[in-house]
Amino acid sequence: MADTAATPHAVELRGVSKRFGDTIAVAELDLGVRSGEFFSMLGPSGSGKTTVLRMIAGFEEVTSGSILLEGEDVTRSAPFDRPVNTVFQDYALFPHMTIAQNVAYGLTVRKTPKAEIRRRVADALEQMRLGHTGDRLPHQLSGGQRQRIALARALILRPRVLLLDEPLGALDKQLREQMQIELKQIQREVGITFIFVTHDQEEALTLSDRIAVFNQGRVEQVGTPREVYEFPQTAFVAGFLGVSNLIAPDLAERLIGESRAFTVRPERVRIAPADMAPAAHETSVLGTISELVYTGPATRYIVEGEHGLRVIAERHNDHAPNDTAPWSRGDRVRVVWATEHAAVVP
Ligand code: ATP
Fold first, then answer.
1. What is the ipTM of this complex?
2. Contact at 8 Å (CB) between 246 and 235?
3. Whose C-alpha lies nearest to ligand 1, atom 3?
4. Which of 120, 178, 247, 324 could serve as a FRET partner for 171 with CA atoms 20 to 30 Å apart?
5. Ligand 1: does its nearest atom lie under 6 Å from the Cβ of 49?
6. What pLDDT is recorded for position 33?
């Protein structure tokens, strides 16, 4: 194959399928994860992300297809023969072992010399800014600290690829957002390829170099956060990655002379007086505001337009807190967006 040339992918899946009885969990999947990237697999529950992760780790056999790690076929290799390690959502720390013993575990079972273990454990804890916790037990640490211990324990084995299965899923929102930033920093520092499973769109957009969007055992699109958000290739991707306006082909034809469906993000849509003439590079629709939704940083306006079109427009609440919204329910308005912000769904 041509793409196995100079630098092989860190992980490559070729035509990988997985069946559980009658369920096709993963269907004919081709995927290439580049070396050193933070790669997320994003999708709703049951879309096959975890199954793909488990097949890369070797916990689950493929039904057909092959898996390559740095160009080497590992499809039939046992998990411990693959240069990968996994961090699970529940961290799977041993409760009766100290933090240092937990972090050392992988080296201990590999019979690494004691002095080297001590040095590497100290380095790993230092790297996670938890140098002082070695003698404690897991229950004496906070959720965020336990998360970092789980990372240290996985990274101490120097895997080429780290697999993370919803590792922030058990944390509350505030801690989760803090850990997202830390996780990204840690990945940049260690330079290891991270493959991250999540069903949280915002999390995937925040963390990833690239995202694969899963739906029903298939990947609908792979791209940078900006690409999948601004230019969704399918209606599913547009809808799953945040709120979107999806304009059906017949309406698209009338509005922009394009007979394919298109999407436009609410934050690209503004509301203008009904009698305002749009500029040449803009598309606009007349309508009536049917609903206002306050979301904190922004307000969403639901506008029922001509031709049965419903458009959501979002306006940042960056005005004085006691200013009321300039538009109310029932107002006749014109929704307007720059035509270049409409992404045609191929
Ligand atoms: P979640 O976020 O809920 O974990 P997911 O996207 O990771 O979802 P998978 O767990 O990979 O999805 O599941 C994909 C499909 O395979 C689902 O229909 C699931 O029910 C099925 N499945 C997964 N593991 C098994 C199993 N061991 N036995 C039978 N069916 C399974």
1. 0.95
2. yes
3. 45
4. 120
5. yes
6. 97
Atom of ligand 1 nearest to the CA of 48: 11
28 and 176 in one domain? yes
Mean pLDDT over the full length of the chain = 90
Residue 345 CA to ligand 1 center (angstroms) comes to 28
Single-letter amino acid, residue 132: H
Helices 114-127 and 99-109 meet at what angle, rounded to 10?
Answer: 130
- My answer on whether 26 and 80 are in the same domain is yes
pLDDT of residue 290: 95
The mean per-residue pLDDT over the stretch 266-270 comes to: 93
pTM (2 d.p.): 0.86
Closest atom, ligand 1, to C-alpha of 47: 6
Ligand 1 atom, smallest distance to 199 CA: 2
Query: Model confidence over 119-161: pLDDT tens digits?
Result: 999 999 988 888 888 899 999 998 888 888 999 999 998 899 9
Task: Specify the ligand 1 atom closest to the Cα of 50.
Answer: 7
The 10s digit of each residue's pLDDT in 26-75 is 999 999 999 999 999 999 999 999 999 999 999 999 999 999 999 999 99
Beta strand segments in the chain, E? 11-20, 23-33, 38-42, 64-69, 72-73, 84-87, 161-165, 193-198, 210-215, 218-223, 245-247, 262-264, 270-273, 282-294, 298-305, 310-316, 332-338, 343-344
Q: Residue 45 C-alpha to ligand 1 middle, in angstroms?
A: 8
**Nearest to residue 295, comparing CAs of 265, 326, 325?**
325
User: 178 and 135 share a domain?
Assistant: yes
Distance from the alpha carbon of residue 62 to the mean position of ligand 1, in angstroms: 14
Kindly state if the Cβ of 193 falls inside 6 Å of ligand 1. Answer: no
Specify whether 124 is located in the same domain as 208: yes
Atom 20, ligand 1: residue with shortest CA distance: 46
Q: How far is the CA of 52 from the centre of ligand 1 (A)?
A: 10
Domain that holds residue 322: 264-344
Contact 212, 49 (CB under 8 A): no
Token representation of residue 74: 């590992």
